[in-house]
């Protein structure tokens, strides 16, 4: 690594430590980070490299590092537990991703064992096997997967996840670009059928913040992750309505910190600073940055050392 990169990394880490010190924390939990097979990550980065015309601005990858460096950077940031959110965009891909994620979690003790699924006949079987292998969180990406979450092939998957009370991080909001099946209504239908299902709404449902917050208020198992919300990058196009801030305070036990690391177009500490700047208090921030995730996921090794 070149000396200038080392200096940049040191400055980056110090900036995160400063934010955490101000609110009385030395460790956090990040429920929305991406680790995936290299050829898949390369394709994800290529997508963001070319997404500018679609979202109306460039999307530079701030942490375009190799896998080991990315893990180390999160450790240096004080992230004591994080996810490896993988997601398929076609059939016969999810089980392969799950196998990779199982190996990754075994090699990286801070990783919260992650799995995924796709609407296909084999989904209930491989989801069951992933759970038996130790999966503690699933990922559903409605936009990229281009499938309705209400697909009948997923009905037994949702039923199993509801039974086992395993959370799913679901990207169902219509940002940064709408998909054929994005939006709050399909998620509301899933919850009508499975009212005890645990769903973590990625990006606070951006831009349908209001509708997804309503679901979190109505259903006990619905949580919200903060991924990219409140940052300058997101506020320019999809600002969070100021009148909804009190609702976030009322949902203080159901808001989880997520970053979208490494695929963010700004330094990591900016996500932290943007949440602190909401003015909802240090105790609220400490819940968001770790306590709520620990309560949700329970006493697993990656979280128990905080």
TrEMBL record:
One of its GO terms (cellular component) is cytoplasm. Keywords: Hydrolase, Lyase. Pfam families: Amidohydro_2. CDD domains: metallo-dependent_hydrolases. InterPro entries: ACMSD, Amidohydro-rel, Metal_Hydrolase. The keyword Transmembrane helix does not apply. One of its GO terms (molecular function) is hydrolase activity. GO terms for biological process: secondary metabolic process. The keyword Ribosomal protein does not apply. Residues 29-298 form the Amidohydrolase-related domain. It comes from the Bacteria. PANTHER family: 2-AMINO-3-CARBOXYLMUCONATE-6-SEMIALDEHYDE DECARBOXYLASE, ISO-OROTATE DECARBOXYLASE (EUROFUNG). This is Amidohydrolase. It comes from Mycolicibacterium anyangense. The lineage of its organism: Bacteria, Bacillati, Actinomycetota, Actinomycetes, Mycobacteriales.
